[in-house]
Amino acid sequence: MRRAAAIVVAGLAATASQTLSAFAHASDRGHVLLLPTGHYIAGAAFAVAASFLVLAVLPPARLVDLWRRRLPLGTVPDLRLPVSLVSFAIFSTLVLAGFFGSRDPLSNPLPLTVWTLLWVGLTLVQGLFGNAWYWLNPWYGPYRLAKWVSGSTDDGNARRVLPGGVGYWPAFVLFFAFAWFEGSRLPPGSTDS
To answer: What's the domain range around 60?
Structure first.
């Protein structure tokens, strides 16, 4: 056991001696903030302080009651399939724009959509209105159409269970691949500013 640990430590030491500097993000150029930096710092500090204040002042039972409160909207028609198909069409268009569109990230709709609508907008929508992905999932509509075309009779509720050892590893590997891709875009010796 000690020998295996020594081999791992030696391997990590050898790997660490061959590392290069890490960059925070692989953007091509700096961005000019529209307001002075102090305004952004003050806004971020206020948001963090306000969230801690809410958690410190409100009793836990009140927070749970607030979270469980629902706004009665009546019956909502099941538009999941058409909304998903529209979402899939938009997703496909964005992927095509990524491959064949402009290389300028400010004129190509793919990076603008990912960084603004998805990373910021969808997070806010999820926080305010609940599970928006249930409706916006671009894979649900094509899946249901493929099941209908193939004549499959399952009701869509049958789920396959992954083996217990899989867990979160697919997400970890994909996020690592994304981070590697972002870091690999910089030319050697350049700095990110």
So the answer is: 37-69
